[in-house]
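Subject: complex prediction, re-run

Hi both,

The earlier run crashed halfway through, so I resubmitted it with identical inputs.
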Amino acid sequence: DTGVSQNPRHKITKRGQNVTFRCDPISEHNRLYWYRQTLGQGPEFLTYFQNEAQLEKSRLLSDRFSAERPKGSFSTLEIQRTEQGDSAMYLCASSLPLGGLSTDTQYFGPGTRLTVL
Amino acid sequence: DQQVKQNSPSLSVQEGRISILNCDYTNSMFDYFLWYKKYPAEGPTFLISISSIKDKNEDGRFTVFLNKSAKHLSLHIVPSQPGDSAVYFCAASEGRVGTASKLTFGTGTRLQVTL
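This time it finished cleanly. Structure:
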């Protein structure tokens, strides 16, 4: 399977704990995105990497959230001191822009569902 | 402020008939539009996209129409099949050269295809 993979698929944690999610993009995709989806809503953009550089962050990404993409391959999203409002599906997507085109198609992983008790 | 709107939360269509899902947007800087399908407990699956320089794009049973003046796009599925039952998301991006094409999503339309 050469699609985007995410681990774990489910995470239940207690309020105040730290959690870390991992995303493995499609091979050779140099762009990687994180989104968050809550019930009844569409995914919302969190942050974006081009290779190993984090180039854009949403205002939704508070200082309790940090994302990394060492060596431009897999990425991790860490949430410190989790709150009940962090409960959501965290989605990762990757893409490979075609030539000089500024638009590219993002392919999503299955997501990590976080429940904060 | 919802920049991408899907005003129909749900749609029921008989198998074999046409399904039409609608999407409106307010940001005139959007120039690339995509439709995704999502099953429960899975990530969104890319279906079809359209650039703002076109008004129609077709891929098999799926056709997307774009009306830039009305800031409206629609997804047509013909013929509809039971396996098409899912939540469909419309998404848009501002395609600026050298920048991220972050997607702005609508809230989704749940399509049910009945026998």
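The CA atoms of residues 8 and 56 of chain B lie 22 Å apart.

- K.
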